[in-house]
TrEMBL record:
The protein's name: rRNA N(6)-adenosine-methyltransferase ZCCHC4
InterPro entries tied to this protein: DNA_methylase_N6_adenine_CS, Mlase_EEF1AKMT1/ZCCHC4, ZCCHC4, Znf_CCHC, Znf_GRF
Sorted UniProt keywords: Cytoplasm, Metal-binding, Methyltransferase, Nucleus, S-adenosyl-L-methionine, Transferase, Zinc, Zinc-finger
Provenance organism: Chrysochloris asiatica
Principal location listed in the UniProt entry: cytoplasm
Family: Belongs to the ZCCHC4 family.
Subcellular location: Cytoplasm; Nucleus, Nucleolus
Any Pfam family matching the protein: N6-adenineMlase
Domain CCHC-type: 445-460
Domain GRF-type: 40-82
Residue ranges, annotated region (Disordered): 1-24, 469-504
An MF annotation (GO) of this entry: rRNA (adenine-N6-)-methyltransferase activity
Length: 513
């Protein structure tokens, strides 16, 4: 069984809408970090624990790091489970069978042969998502095949390939041209010479297009992505088949060395990581991976540069801000709204812009990043950063406080700005959505009840006693809530409850994508 990521999301994205649930699955560190985790076809698996009402279950299990769809990877092993030699051998054979049919080297050879073909012989099978050499034609003659594949098409594989839309695993949401061009221009203005694109195939190709075009940008790019189809279009120095949830290079040491050389070129000067992970992905394993990439970069630095940070753009929904800052406290969130071409909810459509919740988290000082004024962003001299059009500077908070791009209002009782739709509730003693369940689960920690952190960051998390106490408290609160609500009618039939459910579904739809 792959860990049910949709449950994991409820733990991570809590607070994004409606009342919280405290059940789900979390990643945990193994007792002996040096002991190797069992392998699935996607590399080392991760150790998970089920969390029920804020309490961790005792038995932990290994599951796939990359896939949350059992159809893609059904790996499951209890942490304390001992496997027979026969089962281990069967697993190894299965892992080998699941690897791509061609080695990286074979892909490169095919690509070079393809480039030598005259235009009339350059064909692409849409069904198999594969560039065809003349020897392959026969095998695909009943498939939908397109011909005359031009160099321009070869340079834009993200347009030739269909985006993988398995919501539970890949969710390949591709940047809209406007956002992609903004990123390329920004990287160039900031003076970067190398970009490590982690899960950003469209950005990778635009950087390379500009480098080969008239604009004379000389930025180099290396793409790390789990989508093997991209290996048909790039040489070894510009694509590595990679899993960003466990820092696994499918092509072993040679690929790792490509990545190392890329990060360490010029003693690590002029390089940035840009990553846009699938939004359903867990923050912690991603953070662990990015820290490994940072360590790889650091190895190549001069001693006197030791204090420097590797610049990163991590593109992710705004409601993960506190989670990301937990791992990278120096990161700030930019107001820029990243748009996608193929996302049903958040694309810049003809019908007008739906506000995308996706932002850029970065350790580059925000005052160095100019956002496009023609799209309504403006510079706040007090905050020393560009902000959204409606994000107003609050003199009480001394900051432009909006996170979602709408104007937020200051609440003098809470002493902070809150979403425009929220009201101050005198029962809960803080601002909340008008139809919240009073005295229901607070937006704070499930273990100790503090508002400043979530259970995953709770300093008391190891103390199971306090966890049990908190759960009991929580249950007590819940039963009070029910008592209160029964006087108002059944909570789930209330129109506000239906609205809330819809909102949660919308948030969930986004997260699961
Ligand atoms: C949300 S899309 C981002 C695409 C980006 N917006 C672009 O246009 O270039 C996520 C990307 O991460 C890749 N991806 C998904 N799971 C991955 C994993 N476990 N390791 C590495 N890449 C992964 C997908 O193939 C996809 O390219
Ligand atoms: Zn797997
Ligand atoms: Zn085919
Ligand atoms: Zn401001
Ligand atoms: Zn305020
Ligand atoms: Zn308030
Ligand atoms: Zn209340």
């Amino acid at each position: 069984m792959a860990a049910p990521r949709d449950q994991r999301e409820t733990v991570e994205a809590e607070g994004s809408a409606g009342c919280r649930r405290s059940s789900g699955v979390e990643v945990v560190q193994p007792a002996d970090p040096a002991a190797p985790a069992p392998l699935c076809p996607h590399g080392p698996t991760l150790l998970f624990v089920k969390v029920n009402q804020g309490r961790e279950e005792t038995r932990r299990f290994y599951a796939c790091s990359a896939s949350r769809d059992r159809k893609d990877c059904n790996f499951f092993q209890w942490e304390d489970e001992k496997l027979s030699e026969a089962r281990l051998a069967a697993r190894e054979a299965h892992n080998r069978r699941c690897q791509p049919p061609l080695t990286r080297m074979q892909c490169v050879e095919r690509y070079l042969k393809f480039l030598e073909l005259p235009l009339s012989q350059r064909k692409f099978c849409e069904r198999c998502q594969q560039l065809l050499l003349p020897d392959d034609w026969e095998k695909h003659h009943e498939h939908q095949v397109v011909g005359d594949i031009s160099v321009t098409q070869l340079r834009r594989p993200s347009r030739l390939l269909y985006p993988l839309e398995n919501k539970k695993t890949n969710a390949q949401y591709l940047f809209a041209d406007r956002s992609c061009q903004f990123l390329v221009d920004l990287l160039s203005t900031l003076g970067f010479r190398r970009v490590l694109c982690v899960g950003t195939p469209r950005l990778h190709e635009l950087i390379r297009l500009e480098a080969s075009g008239d604009k004379k940008s000389n930025i180099k790019s290396l793409l790390l992505d789990i989508d093997f189809r991209y290996s048909q279009f790039y040489l070894e120095d510009s694509f590595c088949h990679y899993n960003m949830f466990n820092h696994h290079f499918f092509d072993g040491k040679a690929a790792l060395e490509e990545c190392r050389a890329f990060l360490q070129e010029d003693e690590g000067e002029g390089v940035i990581i840009v990553t846009d992970p699938p939004f359903g992905g867990l923050v912690e394993p991603l953070a662990v991976t990015f820290k490994k990439l940072i360590a790889l970069w650091k190895e190549g630095q001069r001693q006197d540069d030791n204090h420097k940070e590797l610049p990163i753009f991590w593109i992710f929904p705004y409601f993960f801000e506190s989670r990301i800052r937990q791992f990278f406290p120096s990161f700030s969130m930019l107001d820029y709204q990243v748009d996608y071409d193929n996302h049903t909810l958040y694309k810049h459509g003809k019908t007008g812009r739906k506000q995308s919740p996706v932002r850029i988290f970065t350790n580059i000082p925000p005052n160095k990043i100019v956002l496009p004024t023609e799209e309504g962003y403006r510079f706040c001299p007090l905050c020393q950063r560009y902000v959204s059009m409606e994000n107003q500077h609050c003199e009480h908070c001394d900051s432009c406080t909006s996170k979602d791009g709408r104007k937020w209002n200051h609440c003098f009782l809470c002493k902070k700005c809150v979403k425009p739709s929220w009201i101050h509730c005198t029962i809960c003693n803080h601002c909340a959505v008008p139809d919240h369940c009073c005295e229901g689960p607070k937006d704070g920690c499930f273990v100790c009840g503090e508002l400043g952190h979530k259970r995953t960051a709770c300093p008391n998390i190891s103390s199971s006693k306090s966890a049990h106490k908190a759960v009991r408290k929580q249950k007590q609160r819940k039963s009070n809530t029910v008592k209160l609500e029964t006087t108002k009618g059944h909570p789930m039939n209330h129109p506000s409850a239906i609205r809330k459910k819809k909102r949660r579904e919308r948030a969930h739809q986004y997260l699961c994508s």
